[in-house]
Amino acid sequence: MNAKVSVIIPCYCSSLTLDRALESVVSQALLPNEIILVDDASPDGGLTIKWIKKFSEDYSNQFAIQTVFLKVNGGAAVARNAGWSRASQPYVAFLDADDSWHYEKLSIQYRYMEGNPEIMISGHQCLVRTGQSENSAVMMSPVEATKVSAKGMLFKNPIQTPTVMIRGDAPFHFREGQRFAEDLQLWQMLAFSGHLIVRIELPLAFVHKSLYGDAGLSAKLWEMEKGELSNYLQLYRADKIGVMVSLIATTYSLLKFFRRIALTLIRRK
Fold this sequence. Notes:
By secondary structure, the chain is an alpha/beta fold. The protein has 7 helices and 9 strands. The protein has 2 domains: 3-208, Spore Coat Polysaccharide Biosynthesis Protein SpsA, Chain A, CATH 3.90.550.10; 211-269. Helix 5 (182-192) packs parallel to helix 6.
């Protein structure tokens, strides 16, 4: 029996990292029913598309594999939504092409979601790994999970995208046109709309770069900060938070931003 999960992997110039991400999916103790690979118009001479097609050919007899090749680069939100709109399973799990999973991730998270159908989103801990993934034993019985509060999410994002499993029928998807903090915007909208979000207290994913101040999107600290500030504005306009809460969250976010700048400068010395 496989997990009733569609795994969505957006790809952008991912030829050097995609193999590691895919290996962590096909090595799961409980395999997913479906894998959807979305190339976000990678300008790398077809290298990413080549890897996607090779994987599809090699594993088409083991998984239901869908491949999506976008003509125009739209960012992670557009790529994830393109995969989500094609997903056939009741649960969707996201994995970025430069990250990877612990081999028990789907087994633990899917069974927890199945046993707790009131949950809209579950995430879990993730570890920063500069080398290969470390699949050490993480079994815990029973699995412990912490409820994520909506207001708490204004000040800290407790779940990273590669840790998320979400019900396929979620009423909101990623906000297209927003290239930074678009994942947090979705979690916040769902949380402030009364949907239950939990974090499983197990490290079941690996991020292979620093969460900020490193290569890729995380290096664009000001753009990330503007995305976070935009999220507060969206929540305010949707009547999810008031003026005072918005101002407090904005002030706190700016203080965190200046601290990140300082830490990044120190680390580069």
